[in-house]
Amino acid sequence: MNIIKATDYNDMSRKAANIISAQVILKPNSVLGLATGSSPLGLYSELVKRYKQGDLDFSQVKSVNLDEYMGLTHDNPQSYYYFMNENLFGHINIVPENTHVPDGTAANAEQACAEYEKVIQSLGGIDLQLLGLGNNGHIGFNEPGTAFEQHTHCVELTESTIQANSRFFEKLEDVPTKACTMGIKSIMMAKKILIIVNGKGKADIVHKAFFGPVTPQVPASILQMHPDVTLVADEEALSLCNL
To answer: 180: closest CA among 214, 222, 152?
Structure first.
């Protein structure tokens, strides 16, 4: 695992943007696995800035998102489809038909997950997968105890994840309790993985995930077994690690 230390959130965002920018420049038709949440906001803002400066071209890029809440329509401001368009897709020249987010409104959720896995495979797999890190070690919505061999699947969100996500909703009861997520195996099949983490609140889980035993109780720990992982984290997030 390659670990890049950043001074703060903005520095983390810039350094992560350097990695994605290099991927797109070196392979213009890259398949990018993308994430949502607060962690990648600065990164996406940096990519938009570089596109507007003429430094990046996304016209051949294809994307697949990690996950989506079940039950939220595309026009719901809390859906990840909406998030991606607001924070990245709507500001760059990526072709809308080349962007893929799981369908959270499908009547048959299991079938929708299976079809999403086929989409990933039809694109030839993911060249670079972006990840954040949950407080309990989850990646995507793969909660502690999730089998490492799972592909895209439906999950019941844990109480801690619901609480963590409640900051994005008006009321706790508005937070969806189910999601469609790429599985651990889907993530591990990506050619490269980029994980971004910031803040003192993540220091303990960073230490457990990347310097502790590989266990389903800390889903992100499996990333230790991937041949090409880069962790970009700020000083606070790395404060418990002896580097």
So the answer is: 152
Q: Is 225 exposed, middle or buried (0-12, 13-18, 19+ CB in 10 A)?
A: exposed
pLDDT at 51: 98
Q: What is the mean pLDDT of each run of 10 residues along the chain (243 residues)?
A: 97 98 98 96 98 98 95 90 97 98 90 94 97 95 91 88 86 88 96 98 97 96 98 98 86
How open is the CA angle 238-132-21, to the nearest 5 degrees?
95
Residues in the chain: 243
Rounded CA separation 100/98 (Å): 7
Active site residues: 67, 136, 138, 143
List domains and CATH numbers for the chain.
Answer: 2-199+211-231 (3.40.50.1360)
Name the pTM for this structure: 0.94
Per-residue confidence (pLDDT) for residue 99, from 0 to 100 = 98
Going by C-alpha positions, the residue among 12, 36, 32 that lies closest to residue 22 is: 32
Q: What share of the chain is helix, strand, coil (3-state, %, to 5)?
A: 40, 20, 40
- Nearest partner of 219 among 243, 175, 182, 184, judged by Cα: 184
